[in-house]
UniProtKB/TrEMBL annotation:
Top-level taxon in the UniProt lineage: Bacteria
Segments of this protein annotated with the region Disordered: 388-450
Name of protein: DEAD/DEAH box helicase
All copies of domain DEAD-box RNA helicase Q, residue ranges: 1-29
Keywords for this protein: ATP-binding, Helicase, Hydrolase, Nucleotide-binding
Entry similarity comment: Belongs to the DEAD box helicase family.
InterPro entries attached to this UniProt entry: DEAD/DEAH_box_helicase_dom, DEAD/DEAH_RhlB, DEAD_box_RNA_helicase, Helicase_ATP-bd, Helicase_C-like, P-loop_NTPase, RNA_helicase_DEAD_Q_motif
Protein EC: 3.6.4.-
Ranges of residues in domain Helicase ATP-binding: 32-203
């Protein structure tokens, strides 16, 4: 397939020519018609696959020239770095198109941004918090948004932006196209799609179902959390073989819980990363693991993405990932650079179904190992495993338990104000003593008399 097969227009063809791109990447080829059709779309693709163009090409193709001031396309991304990157990509494609693109993010002067917004724009790229601040200040009008793109939505949810997204959905026009891109499918992403998307079309670049040949794969069938911990202890005792071990768990709370258990057994040998840890903590953990200071790293799926650490001897799936693609991503962390890698997966009875999905994707069976006799089979159950909790595998339940806590910092005074509604009018009234309503001509007189 070439770009000629996509129904682009001359300005876009010229921009792509200038960039020297010849063929669309798989996600671009797959997304173009779906995004162009105006339907809701969920794309599963990682950074580096050309996903930004995958949604921007069809959007730019259909965006008519307009002189209206309010933006028509809104792209939400989790970090300021991504705002910059996405704006750059859009500008590359817009070389021969007359459109106005603006990137906004927090931590910068909002007044400068307000002035730029007031000059009019077509495409706005933003982090959720700053977008919301601009919208409530009324400088930014969202009533003309036709297309909402949420990029890296898995990271966004993992950083605790769900509420911010809800608030933004509330002030967007009902009639709009939702386009979402995520590198991994998680329970949170799934829930968001179910709640807010209308019958979306899913496009994903087929994750290669063929695992690398140099990764051996084995599995244990195991009844519960504590038995998993006992088995893990048994394996990790062999420090020479298990010299650099990446352990995956499904959610943050489980990561912390497992970390505590391992600290009791192998004090000072583990570290943990998930999104409730500070950036510094995460960086330090990764450094310590990379340098060999700690031989065990516990991580959640989203956090381990993009981790490029050499010589990982074993990837242990402490739980069986619900989405088979995630299993492929996880085990790909070992066996890099032609080195021999080992992947082990623990599955309870409840995890049989996802296990089968993984085997189906790979078109192969993972060999089953017997739990060594020396491993104690525990009867103790953790909260989620106890029978009275009927909903223990309810993804919504799990999400709640794992919900991010309150913000790390005290709110600034100005943010503590409660919303009394109509702030714009109140401000104008205070400043100019203008009538509260157009019809209320006696308002000023009345107030003077007071
Ligand atoms: P992304 O996945 O959107 O972060 O894009 C990764 C990089 O690939 C960016 O630097 C793009 O400019 C580049 N890129 C996007 N589409 C293509 C293509 N069809 N051919 C070659 N490079 C591309």
């Amino acid at each position: 397939m070439t770009f000629q097969d996509l129904n682009l227009n001359t300005p876009l063809y010229n921009a792509i020519d200038d960039l020297g791109f010849t063929t669309p990447t798989p996600i671009q080829a797959q997304s173009f018609n779906v995004v162009a059709s105006g339907k809701d779309v969920v794309g599963i693709a990682q950074t580096g696959t050309g996903k930004t163009f995958a949604y921007m090409l069809p959007i730019l193709r259909n965006l008519k020239y307009s002189t209206q001031d309010n933006p028509r396309v809104l792209v939400l991304v989790p970090t300021r770095e991504l705002v910059v990157q996405v704006v750059e990509e859009i500008e590359k494609l817009s070389k021969y198109i007359n459109n106005r693109v603006l990137g906004v993010y927090g931590g910068t002067n909002i007044n400068t941004q307000k002035r730029t917004v007031a000059q009019g724009l077509d495409i706005l790229v933003a982090t959720p918090g700053r977008l919301y601040d601009l919208a409530v200040s009324r400088v930014l009008q969202l009533k003309s948004i036709q297309k909402l793109v949420i990029d890296e939505v898995d990271v966004m949810l993992d950083l605790g932006f769900r509420h911010q997204l809800m608030n933004i959905f509330d002030i967007l026009p009902q009639r709009r196209q939702n386009i979402m891109f995520s590198a991994t499918m998680t329970d949170d992403v799934d829930a968001l799609i179910t709640d807010f998307f209308i019958n979306p079309t899913k496009v994903s670049i087929a994750v290669s179902g063929t695992p690398l040949e140099n990764i051996s794969q084995e599995r244990y069938s195991i009844p519960n959390f504590y038995t998993k911990v006992n088995l893990l202890e048994n394996l990790l005792k062999d420090k020479e073989t298990y010299s650099k071990v990446l352990i995956f768990v499904a959610y943050k709370r489980m990561a912390d819980r497992l970390f505590d258990e391992l600290e009791e057994r192998f004090y000072g040998e583990s570290c943990v990363i998930h999104s409730n840890k500070t950036q510094n903590y995460r960086l330090r953990s990764i450094e310590q693991f990379e340098s060999g200071e700690h031989r065990i790293l516990i991580a959640t799926d989203v956090m381990a993405r993009g981790l490029d650490i050499d010589n990982i001897t074993h990837v242990i799936n402490f739980d069986t990932p619900l989405y088979p693609e995630n299993y492929m991503h996880r085990i790909g962390r070992t066996g890099r650079a032609e080195k021999e890698g080992h992947a082990i997966v623990f599955s309870t009875e409840m995890e049989q179904e996802p296990l089968e999905a993984i085997e189906h994707l790979m078109q192969m069976k993972i060999s089953l190992l017997q739990i060594p006799d020396s491993v104690l089979i525990s009867n103790e159950l953790i909260e989620e495993e106890r029978p009275q909790l009927k909903e223990r595998y309810n993804p919504l339940k799990r999400k709640d338990e794992d919900a991010p806590g309150p913000a790390f910092h005290e709110k600034k005074d100005k943010n503590k104000k409660s919303n009394q509604g109509g702030s714009y009018r109140r401000e104008v009234a205070k400043k100019y003593k203008k009538p509260r309503t157009r019809g209320d001509k006696n308002y000023n007189k009345r107030n003077k008399r007071k």
